[in-house]
Structures are given as structure tokens and as C-alpha cells.
Amino acid sequence: MNQKPTQKDLWKNQQLEYLHNCFIGISNLTCSNSDCPLVYSWGDIEKKQSKKGKVAFYKISQGKWVVVDLEKYEENDLGGYDNIEIKFKSGKSQRTKPTDYVEPKKDKGLISFISGILPNKPKPPKEIFLKDEEIVLFFNNSSKTSNLLDAETIYLDDLWETKERIKWDQKASKKKIINWVEQKVDGEDKAYKIDQWENDYIFNIHNPDITNEIKAHEVYSTQNNKEREQLWKDYHEELSELKEVYGIRHNIQQKEERQNNPEIDMIKSPFLALERDKWRERMKGIKDFEDKKGCNGIHTLSYGSYQEHQAEIMLQGQVENLEDKEEEENKEKPVEYLENHAKPN
Ligand SMILES: [Zn+2]
């Protein structure tokens, strides 16, 4: 059945999209090679990671890779993956050779016998398996799950309800004109009145005591609507909790309070821990991509702002310098040793 989406469905989808973008937008990958296939596809990889928790990068030819859905995989004892199945945009699937694969027997006699009976039966096409070196798997986090797992049922339904109550309150507290009338207006029973109060701008209240010809009218408007204030507070607090639970960066305190406050680091730790987990998991994929000669550049991955990315690049540079230095020192050692020990005094 193709039902039209409700306003609630549309709103929930929009919220999910926005929240996914919060994750996708803060992941930055750069490469020292300006023509890096991984950098070009990073946005698509992140999108699938965020929504599905897993994705595959498939090598079409040297230097050309595409992002595809990762449908199936099994972890093996060697830290690698078996029985991988990917799905292309067209819907076509391809898999690696199954670990329990048995080569089909080629019984020429039987085949010619069968094709004798069924002359038009087409030969089954030979399956082309994926090769390990043309596929790189990426996972969103160490539990290999999507970013907003169950957020819909845990938070978005409640948030929608609060929003509906705010809407109701807005409508109910609209400015109204109350007419005091002498006689009951036909058809206006109690239920009708409640209904009118929620919907109407002009509202009749009859009071038999009124004998004045002109009757009275008064303008009603809500003041100090504490209830709606509370509803908005509830809404923002729940949204804030959602962001915290799912590790989305958000402003927890006012800007001026945030400066030089060591407590902030503690407050930041929930999303930093999740980001580190994600970083580690992505680095495995990036390393695999480098090992499979996808690109020979130096890849730097960071989370957050431009400044944070620059810091990451500098840090990586320092680590590499240190490694080079160590390597050099190790090379020099035998020479030094010879110089110090083998020289005749
Ligand atoms: Zn690269």
C-alpha cells in the first residue's frame, strides 16, 4: 500500500536527516594527493555509514572507486571479513567466493544429455566473484551500527507530541472576544462551547442576569503563559538529551562560560569518546584502502572544526617526523657502534 506520509512522518524524516547531517558534516578527510578517490567519495561514505552503519568502497579500475551498499559480511578469526556481498546502485549484487564454495562438477556427458532433452535451456552464467583486493569495508563504529539507532521511537515520537501540545496551546490561548449575552444562543450546548473555545475568535457566554440592552463584551488574551514556556523547555531538554546520548556536538553552555573552563572537557567527553571510536574504526578502512593501493597519499581524518583538522595534520606530521627520526637513528646505530668499538685506539 502506498499511503501518503503524514505530517508527523515528514517531520520525523526531516529531523533524522538533520541529525544525520550533524554527524556527516563534522568528519573531515584530507589527502596529500590532490586527486584522491577516497576524499572525493568521503561524503557518500559518511552518509551510508551514518544511516546504515556500514559501507563498501569498490574498485572499478586503477584510481576509480565507487561507494556501494554492504549487504552481508562475516568476521573471520584473522580480523578480516568473509562472505562479503555488495549491492550496486542498479540493484545488482556481487559477492566474494563463499568460504564453503564447491566448484560445480563439469560432467560433459550429463550436460550434453540434458541439452539434448532441453535444447533451448540457456547455460547458467558463470558467477564472477569479488576479489578481496578490489573491496574495502568501512564501519561506522566498533559496534557496527548506524548513528541514530532507535532515536525515532525513543525520542522523536515524544518530541512530536510535545510539539503538538505547544501547537494546541498556541491555538487555545489565541486572543478572543467574549460576548456576554442575555439569552442562550440556539444550538450552543456545553460540548459546542468547548469546541468553540478551542477554535473561535468570537465566543458567546449567556448570562440571564444581564438585562442591559447593550450587553457586554470583553477581550480575552492569555498572559504569562507558563505552560507553553514549560513545554518549550521540555522540548529543548529532550532534544538536548537526544544529542548527548547519540554523541552529537551541541552547545551545552553559554559561550562566555565555555572559555577556559576545565569542566567543559568533562562535559565534552561523551561525544569525544564516541568520535574517537568512530575515528579508530574509519582508520582501519583507510589503512586497508592504502594497503590495497587505492591511493599513495597521506590521509588525515579528524572530527569537528577546521582548526581541529589543522591540529590533527600537525600532530600527524610530528608523529611521522618522530618515526623518520627513529628510523634514521636505528640506521645510524651500527655505524656509531663500529665507530665507538671497532676503531683501534
Ligand atoms: Zn588519498
What report would you give on this structure?
There is one protein chain. The protein is of the alpha+beta class and 345 residues long. Among the domains are: 29-148, Upper collar protein gp10 (connector protein) fold, CATH 2.40.500; 174-221, no CATH class; 305-341. Helix content is 48%, strand content 18%. The strands form 3 sheets. It has a 5-stranded antiparallel beta sheet with strand order 5-4-3-2-6, covered by helices on one side. Helix 1 (7-25) crosses helix 2 (37-52), helix 1 (7-25) crosses helix 4 (151-172) and helix 4 packs antiparallel against helix 6 (226-245). The protein is elongated. The protein binds zinc ion. Residues 31, 33, 36, 38, 295, 297, 299 line the site of zinc ion.
Task: Give the helices and strands, then pairings.
Blueprint (H helix, E strand, L loop, with lengths): L6 H19 L1 E5 L5 H16 L1 E8 L2 E12 L5 E7 L5 E3 L12 H10 L17 E5 L11 H22 L3 E6 L8 H10 L2 E5 L9 E5 L5 H20 L9 H4 L3 H30 L7 E5 L2 H36 L4
Parallel strand pairs: 7-8
Antiparallel strand pairs: 1-10, 2-3, 2-6, 3-4, 4-5, 7-9
Low-confidence stretches: none
Largest sheet: 5 strands, antiparallel
Helicity level, as a percent range?
40-55%
Supply the number of helical segments: 9
Q: Ligands bound here?
A: zinc ion
Q: What's the arrangement of strands in the largest beta sheet?
A: 5-4-3-2-6
